[in-house]
Specification:
Elements lengths: L5 H7 L45 H5 L13 H13 L11 E4 L2 E4 L1 H7 L14 H11 L4
Antiparallel strand pairs: 1-2
The protein binds zinc ion.
Zinc ion binds next to α3.
Length: about 150
């Protein structure tokens, strides 16, 4: 089991709660970065947390250390990384009707196809349904940076 002092980590990273105190719960239990949890930030409530529309893979949830469960939220980068790893290990889905159209002799994939594939390729596709953060991560991956 990993021995991580989350309170120390949060203090070091300057993560502060709405009470103006360093908050260990605002750190990701996997990478130690800020988890951008709606409830752990100084932001006034502006709608549901980013995690509300996310899918957490079983492998990702299993990687959270026991002592951090139900206390620390996973950050968006770790959620994206886990989903990308899982989806990239699968064969590419076959393109079906509605997945693409031809324009000027080129194949243009629709958002529907990208969503079934499950990850951003980082090529700046016209109908990319993924977030700016995921696109940025895909571009970095292409360039061989972690
Ligand atoms: Zn993380």
């Amino acid at each position: 089991m990993r021995d991580v002092n989350f309170t120390k980590l949060a203090r070091k990273r300057g993560i502060v709660t709405r009470l103006g105190m360093n908050c260990a719960a605002a750190t990701c239990p996997i990478c130690g970065g800020p988890n951008e949890c709606q409830l752990a930030t100084t932001d006034a409530y502006k709608g549901p947390c980013w995690c509300a529309g996310e899918t957490f893979t079983d492998a990702l949830l299993a990687s959270v250390p026991e002592e951090a469960r139900r206390i620390h939220c996973i950050c968006p980068r770790c959620v994206i990384t886990a989903r990308r790893l899982e989806m990239k290990a699968r064969p590419l889905p076959r393109a079906e009707a509605g997945d693409f159209y031809i324009e000027g002799g080129r194949v243009v994939f629709t958002a529907q196809y990208h969503q079934r594939r499950g990850y951003c390729c980082g090529n700046g596709c016209r109908h990319c349904p993924f977030t700016a953060m995921e696109f940025e991560m895909a571009v970095m991956e292409q360039r061989g940076k972690p």
